[in-house]
Design goal:
Strand content: 15-25%
Number of helices: 15
Radius of gyration: 23 Å
Structural class: alpha/beta
Distance between the termini: 72 Å
Shape: globular
Strand order of the largest sheet: 14-17-18-13-12-19-20
């Protein structure tokens, strides 16, 4: 926002890192905490409670009690709607505070926290609140001697484990449908970005959500996250994160109570540009903008760009020039477009992939280096590789950083084959002026969302999720209610007089 000195606000900010259980802030049962470190300059923002088994037990017990006594689940859908709408209004009223927490915590530019993350969070909560009293049950077409009612009921206690790249938005995607449906929730945010989740829980209470319905336990995955996924009194887990951890979620369900597990996992999205693309410049700019937004830390980022060999030179030149507008700068400067990656570990990971790309013979067209090292923060340049072979590490593995890889192809068949030659299937894009080709290729691609002549346009009304190792189930849209509700059939025998 114009005129705001975000550095002054950051210096004056005081962090409350205590967890929120049963409507109360509290320290971890062990008394332990961990440092919350900003990737902007390596500064310790404060101490956050280090949740573990005892804290998860307390949070789940609180959530179960709240569910069983009906303080939330038994409220009419219209009443739950009003609370969720007030919750969304509270998020917007706290816009600057939440945006600052998000930027400090994970390094994204303040302009995007303000323009994207906070409004999207509020929109999600409000939309599910508005939707819940418009979701109808069914009457089955049985014979006249019976009446079969099919109704949706809340599942009970939902465990939500969310990643660090979009902390608020990912939390809202889990919270919106779960709370609207009448469930109680225990949220475990990433230890790398726990601050906005804790503040959201306070705002929910202020909006009228009863204590115990929404609990937040920060901590490490192997402690708090594992305890939540293994808990015998959790009915479902909604997880967003790496495919490796997603596999563990399924194992934990098998070792515990066979709870439902809904995983939204990694991606290596293919972006196909054909020779008949009449807007090559827009295609290249869109690829770069989508790849470098959020420092490349997006599971749906178009990190595999497949370009027909006849237009590849021009495409690479345009994308490389576009990268100049995405070079890392101070996230607390309102003009900055690309900030810091989430921490030094992630910085080293991204730089390792860049080194591997060069070692395997790809050509670094631009970027490829650490940036702003003197700041003490974690920054890496927007990077474009050309001449990438499908077998290279940077073409196969999810980097989760600002690294765009260009792979050249000769034929449509080759492009489709390369696009589908991945264990992931989250998103894809097709750029062609030939409607038959665009439709044909879109149908052939194995991905949860296929964009045509655009990328990453989005709305809460459409489902988000992927094929294969990109996960199961869908976030967003009315389809998300499928993950947080049970279908009950009530069969009534109608006797003749």
């Amino acid at each position: 926002m114009a005129g705001v000195n975000w550095h002054e606000r950051a210096a004056a900010l005081r962090i409350d890192g205590r967890m929120l259980v049963d409507g109360q802030r509290r320290e971890a049962a062990s008394g332990q905490g961990f440092d919350c470190i900003s990737p902007i300059a390596g500064r310790v923002l404060g101490t956050v409670a280090r949740g573990a088994q005892a804290d998860i037990d307390a949070a789940v017990a609180s959530a179960r009690t709240a569910f069983d006594d009906g303080r939330w689940a038994s409220q009419a859908p219209a009443a739950r709607k009003r609370v969720l709408q007030r919750f969304a209004e509270g998020v917007l009223a706290a816009k600057e505070e939440l945006a600052l927490l998000e930027t400090l915590d994970m390094g994204k530019p303040i302009q995007w926290s303000l323009a994207v993350d906070v409004p999207s969070t509020a929109r999600c909560l409000a939309w599910y609140g508005e939707a819940v009293d418009k979701v109808y049950g069914e009457i089955a077409p049985t014979a006249g001697t019976a009446l079969a009612l099919i109704t949706r009921e809340p599942m009970g206690v939902i465990g939500a484990i969310v990643p660090w790249n979009y902390p608020m938005i990912m939390a809202a995607w889990k919270l919106g449908p779960a709370l609207a449906a009448g469930n109680s929730v225990v949220l475990k945010p990433s230890e790398k970005s726990p601050l906005t989740a804790l503040r959201l829980a306070e705002l929910a209470l202020e909006a009228g959500l009863p204590p115990g319905v929404f609990n937040v336990v920060p901590g490490f995955g192997q402690e708090a996250g594992e305890a939540l996924a293994l808990h015998m009194d959790v009915d479902a887990i909604g997880f967003t994160g790496s495919t490796r951890t997603g596999r563990r979620m399924l194992e934990y369900a098998g070792r515990s109570n066979l709870k439902r597990v809904y995983n939204e996992l990694g991606g290596k999205s293919a972006y196909l540009v054909f020779e008949d693309c009449g807007e090559l410049e827009r295609a290249a700019r869109t690829a770069a903008d989508s790849m470098f937004f959020n420092q490349g830390q997006s599971c749906n980022a178009p990190s595999r760009v497949l370009v027909h060999e006849s237009v590849a030179d021009d495409f690479v030149a345009i994308a490389s020039a576009q990268a100049a507008g995405w070079q890392p700068a101070d996230p607390l400067d309102a003009a900055t477009t690309m900030g810091a990656v989430v921490d030094d570990t992630q910085l080293r990971t991204v730089l390792g992939y860049i080194a591997a790309g060069s070692a395997e013979g790809a050509r670094c067209a631009t970027g490829g280096r650490q940036a702003r090292a003197a700041s003490g923060g974690s920054y890496v340049e927007a990077t474009v590789f050309d001449g990438v072979a499908p077998a290279m590490k940077i073409a196969r593995e999810e980097i989760f950083g600002p690294v765009l890889s260009v792979i050249r192809f000769k034929t449509e068949e080759e492009a489709v084959r390369l696009a589908n030659a991945s264990p992931y299937g989250l998103q894809a894009s097709v750029w062609s002026d030939h409607i038959h080709r665009a439709h044909r290729v879109a149908r052939a691609l194995r991905a949860g969302t296929v964009h045509v002549n655009q990328y990453d346009e989005d709305d809460i009304t459409v489902p988000f999720g992927g094929y294969r190792q990109s996960g199961n189930g869908r976030d967003k849209s009315l389809h998300a209610f499928d993950k947080v509700s049970e279908l009950k059939t009530t069969w009534l025998r109608i006797n003749n007089p």
